[in-house]
Amino acid sequence: MMKAFDWQLHKKGYIPMSGQIIDASLVPAPKQRNTDDERQAIKDGKSAQDIWPDDPAKAAQKDTDARWTLKIGGKVRYKNGKPLPMIALPVFGYKSHISIDRRYGFIRAGEVTSAAHADGRMLRHVIAENSSSEVWADTAYRSGTNETWLADRMLTSRIHRRKPKGKPMPRATARANATKSAIRARIEHV
């Protein structure tokens, strides 16, 4: 069954039949200034009203769903053939997981989680129906479970392959990843 949005696009001639690209973006939230006890209560899953019952105005301003994560950014830099340390930036907030149509760039599905949530766990939640069988994503989405799940639904995985630990990237894998990146880059514009 088509969703109302998909049906309206279909009537205009936009038929999502060229595959889908999946990615996640970090969305920063204002940092919270909590005491150790308040922080522990948030980790234990208590709501803001439970933590600050006597101060409803304060409870309304507190974000108990956002979490911290480390964003390791940029390309690996080398000096004298050895990789330099990567810079890890702490980020407090959320992740926006989306799936777009490869050809038209429309967002087909999306979910929001805390920043600490693993990207790979969200694959099955953002796969849209009524599309081509090809699915592009970065290495964060590659796992045996996801590959099996895609194969069971007759979807073709175009997910990047990881570099073997302690070994150089095989040339064929690097070329395949580069080809996939040329297509997957489209989601960065969305």
TrEMBL record:
Q: Name one GO biological process term.
A: DNA transposition
Give the molecular function GO annotations: DNA binding; transposase activity
Identify the InterPro entries for this entry: Transposase_11
Q: Which domain of life is it from?
A: Bacteria
- Tell me where in this chain the Transposase IS4-like domain is found: 17-190
Q: What is this protein called?
A: Transposase (Class II)
Which species? Answer: Sphingobium indicum BiD32
